[in-house]
Structure formats: structure tokens, C-alpha cells
Amino acid sequence: MPPTRTQSTFVSPIVESRRWVAGAEFPPDRPLLNVSQAAPAEAPPEGLRRALADAALNDTAAHLYGPVLGNDALRQALARQISAHYQAAVGPEQVAITSGCNQAFAAAISALCGEGDEVIIPVPWYFNHKMWLDMAGVTAVPLHAGAGMLPDPAAAAALIGPRTRAIVLVTPNNPCGVEYPAGLVRAFFDLARDRGLALIVDETYRDFDSRSGAPHGLFQMPDWDRTLIHLYSFSKAYRLTGHRVGAIAAAPDAMFEMEKFLDTVTICPSQLGQAGALWGLENLQDWLAGERQEILDRRAAIEDGFPVLAAKGWRLLGCGAYFAYVAHPFDQPSEEIARKLVAEASVLMLPGSMFMPAGDPDGARQFRIAFANVDRAGIRTLFARLAAFEP
Predict the structure, then answer these.
(1) What whole-number distance in Å separates Cα of residue 203 and Cα of residue 198?
(2) 256-266 core/surface letters (b: 16 or more CB in 10 A; e: else)
(3) Out of 25, 192, 218, 235, which could bridge 241 as a Cys pair, Cβ 3.0 to 4.6 Å?
(4) Pairing assessment for the beta strands 315-320 and 323-327 based on DSSP bridges
């Protein structure tokens, strides 16, 4: 029997790595440092929690089905926010709300691709993107990062074939952290437009970009929505990971196709999650600016402290948003080292092999460090443990 769709893909690295620490005991003087997952570990601010509680207690609609593409008030508010941030004109009919950004990606792929079609994705890849393409029967065509962990439009052009339907970018990047320059993003837009492809740009971490203002000008392009499908997440900005609220910006006719998928999978996004996202958009911009500064400070701590590891042969390949991407100096492959780090250094981080095609030699040399939940002191401790580690 051929494999099922789920059997055709790998286990989520987050799920797999949790098994490494399940039941493990760590010395009191060396507690576990978990830098494996890029998600806030704290509850939303009190005001947002009160808004959620008020909706749950007093708004009957918070417990009922809502519009498949999301509530009008949130779509309108996000359209205004996108328009202001990117200095462009984006209407609510070009915006939809989804049950998390992963679902936004799945909806886009379902609207664009048929069985056996191809999508070009950057490598190292965001693993859930690859997993969904596998489960959708769509071939993921790897576009290996070049200098500075940046993808090359010319290399992408060489990968385009008759079944190619889209190119995917993630910026700031997961897993590498790098921020794609505006000119590079524009070059990919031009390539996709000229070849009749969609450009899917996942900007889950845009609220933590080190650049002020719009990171690119794609929304200012004439007929941008004929090429661009933009993905966003409220989870990282407002600590709403458990409420699953993401978003898509795209052409209304693309939304029509995505609506079929969304209606079949979840019927509508979480009403409480949408209430929280709307309150956050309307009330937490100053608070979010402070969160951004804290993440930028942790990024600086990674860069300032890395010489301790560089002296041991480690290399910093990329850094930004929630992530640092590094190369280790050891002979053993990264997955073997990752397991030893749990047992011998109380450190949990994901090996590069989890972000690469099977057998890719680069994956055996690399790690992702998710530092969003590790402050400056924790980063110093992490680097001290890694510097002292010998497999």
C-alpha cells in the first residue's frame, strides 16, 4: 500500500524534540534551557485578557459561528494597519482571518495548487511549510540559501518548471532569523509576476523586524494582489498562540477559493481569538513597540556574546526576530549532538537537519536557537554551556 498523506511527511520537530526531554530530570544547578520553539511563554497583557473575558461573558456571538473569512471589524482594522505600515492602500476585501498562520499557508496552497504541482521554498525551510506541501500532494522544490542565508532570485528562476505554482519567502526568516532586503523581496516579486506565479510572503515575525517602517514596497505595486499572497500572525505580537489567529492578504478572487478550504476545515476562526486580536490592534501598539525593543536587545545579546562561541569554532550564520542560526564545530551530526546537549548540558535546541531535505550535509552542521524566551542572562548561560560542551 502506498503511504498516506500524513505518512508521506516527517514528524514535527517540535513534537519530536519534546520527546527528548519527556521524563528527563535536570540538576537543580543546571535547569533545562529550552531554545527549541519560537513562541511567547507568557500570557497576554492584562488588558487583553480582560477583553477576552468580557467577550466570553457578555458577547453571545463569541460562542457562535462567524464569517468564514473572519469578522468584519477585525478585517477592517487589519487592512488599516497593513495600509499604514506599508504606506499602501489595502482594503478589507483583500484581507481574511485564519486559525493561525499555518492555516493561512495551507489555505493559500489549496487555492493555488493541484496534485503534483510544485512550490519553490527556501532552504533551510520552515518545517510546517514542507509538511503541508507533502500532505497536500505538492512537490516542495528546495531553493538553497546563499551568502548571508539569503535566497537568490536567479537560482529560483532556474527551478521554475511547467508545474511551478508559487515561490515562498519567510522574512524575517524562520529558521535563520535574517531579514530579507527590500530589493531582494522586490526581485522575487518581479520574477513571480513575470512568470505568472504567486509569491507567498510569510511575515509572521514582521513586528520584530529591526528596520523601522515598511520592510518592502510590494503593497505599493500596481495590482499587487495578482501576484502577492501575504501571511501574518497575531500569535507572536499579542501572545495569542493558543487562540490561533492568523491572516492572509490577497486578491478577492483568491479569497473566494481559500474560503472553500477554510469553511471545510474550521468553518470560522476563533471568535475569542479574533476579539483579542482586534483589542490588541486597537490598544497595544505602544506595548508591542516595547516587546520589539526587548527582542532586538536579545538579538544584540546574541551578537555581542557570540565571540565566546566563535573562539570554540562555532559560526553565527544568521540572527534576527526570534532566531539565531549557527554552525557547530564538531565531527558528529547535529541531531546526535542535539540529544547529547539535552543530557549533558541541559540545552534543548533544534538541529539544522530538521530544516533541510533528508541527507543534506549542511543540516548536519547547523542549529537553530530560538531566543524569544531567553533574556540576556539566559543567553550568557546558554553560550557558557555550549562553549564548555564537548561531545
Answers:
(1) 16
(2) eebbebbeeee
(3) 235
(4) antiparallel
252-306 residue pLDDT tens: 999 999 999 999 999 999 999 999 999 999 999 999 999 999 999 999 999 999 9
The set of cell numbers assigned to 254 is: 483568491
- Any idea where the domains of the chain sit in the sequence? 13-43+287-388, 63-284
Question: Would you state the torsion angle of the CA atoms of residues 312, 318, 319, 321, taken in this order, to the nearest 10 degrees?
Answer: -150
Report the predicted TM-score, pTM, of the whole model to 2 decimal places.
0.95
Buried b (16+ CB within 10 A) or exposed e, 295-320: beebbebbeebbeebeebebebbbbb
Bridge partners of residue 369, in order along the sequence: 324
- Which residue do the cell numbers 540576556 mark? 376
Residue 24 contacts residue 153 (beta carbons within 8 Å): no
**H-run or E-run covering 319:** strand 315-320
User: Which cell goes with 246?
Assistant: 492568523
Q: Is 5 exposed, middle or buried (0-12, 13-18, 19+ CB in 10 A)?
A: exposed
Total length of the chain:
391
- Chain centroid to Cα 289, Å, comes to 19
Pick the CATH number of 63-284 from 2.40.50.100, 3.40.640.10, 3.90.940.20, 3.20.20.70: 3.40.640.10
